[in-house]
Amino acid sequence: MKAVALTQYLPIENPNAFLDVTLETPRPQGHDILVGVKAVAVNPVDTKVRAPKDTVEPSPRVIGYDASGVVEAVGPDVTLFKAGDAVYYAGDITRSGTNQEFHLVDERIVGHKPTSLSHAEAAALPLTTITAYEAFFDRLGIDRDGADKGQTILIIGAAGGVGSIGIQLAKQAGLVVIATASRPETSAWVQDLGADHVISHGEDIVVQVRALGMHHVDHIAVFNDMRHWDAAVELIRPQGGIVSIDGTDSPMPMAGMKMKAASLHWEFMFARPMHKTPDMIEQHKLLSHVAKEIDAGRIRTTVSQVLTPINAANMREAHRLVETGKAKGKIVVEGF
């Protein structure tokens, strides 16, 4: 089968950062399904895994996580899917990745693809959808079905992949969304996705939120980095919650959190498959739920650019675009 792989961890400008290779097609066992990959998306985690380091792989390593495709075969323990089903998923960071023609993935972290979307449109969604969904509904404890309607959420770094789907999930839950962006085009993007208020994370966030007439907000999601920690602590309401996806080593003073009895949560969407948690099937359930919301017209894809075909050259370009830190929505690579 065709695959895009690496043997060295090189700057993305290096033509050997990714290589076109041919590998054996794997066979499904246990709960695995074999997916014929039609499209993949590139996330910041892809660029972090590929980031330059001295390691040399003894054999080609395939990375990649987001994918949309069609089930080709199933393992003996599979009950959720059959050959011919269209699926979308974010994979498992501990296993071979999706940048290959055929890919093995555990059925319990896979959802039925939204029927109204193309494979490219669907591939843009799984990793960011799982991240935002778990951040809001599992970590912060927001009610998905509207019991917390009218509460406020500040999404810092809202124009990226996670923020783009996060705005929509928050609006579906009935929240008032304050989204941060830093450029005119990203401000327009988050407003178009449904944000109630748009402010700049390049300026004083506290001042801007207070100018909206809000002294505190009920929930805060940090979807870029923790340099905004002090502002988040200042703005979170007493007994409110902050969730972050940034694996930071920056100082995070906690006195303000203690005085408010506020909570801090970490979101890492690979935790369930990585540790084979008893509830890993929740990712199947949430992806299937969001697919129904998309097909009902209540949530839309966040793809902003599609490159074709899936090969080393286009994978280098997709990584380059993500590494600029200026991409809005998701970058997708489609078709072998």
Structure description:
Residues 14-333 form the Enoyl reductase (ER) domain. Helix content is 29%, strand content 29%. By secondary structure, the protein is α/β, with parallel strands linked by helices. The protein folds into 2 domains: 2-125 and 271-334, Alpha-Beta Complex (Quinone Oxidoreductase, Chain A, domain 1); 129-266, 3-Layer(aba) Sandwich (Rossmann fold). The strands form 3 sheets. Strands 3, 5, 6, 7, 8, 15 and 16 form a 7-stranded mixed sheet that branches. It has a 6-stranded parallel sheet with strand order 11-10-9-12-13-14, sandwiched between helices. Strands 2-1-4 form a 3-stranded antiparallel sheet. α3 crosses α4. It is globular.
Please specify the SSE layout and strand pairing:
Blueprint: E1 2-9, E2 19-22, E3 32-42, H1 44-50, E4 53-61, E5 66-74, E6 86-89, E7 102-106, E8 110-112, H2 119-123, H3 126-139, E9 152-156, H4 161-172, E10 176-181, H5 184-192, E11 197-200, H6 205-211, E12 217-222, H7 229-235, E13 236-244, H8 255-260, E14 263-266, H9 271-275, H10 281-295, E15 303-307, H11 312-323, E16 330-334
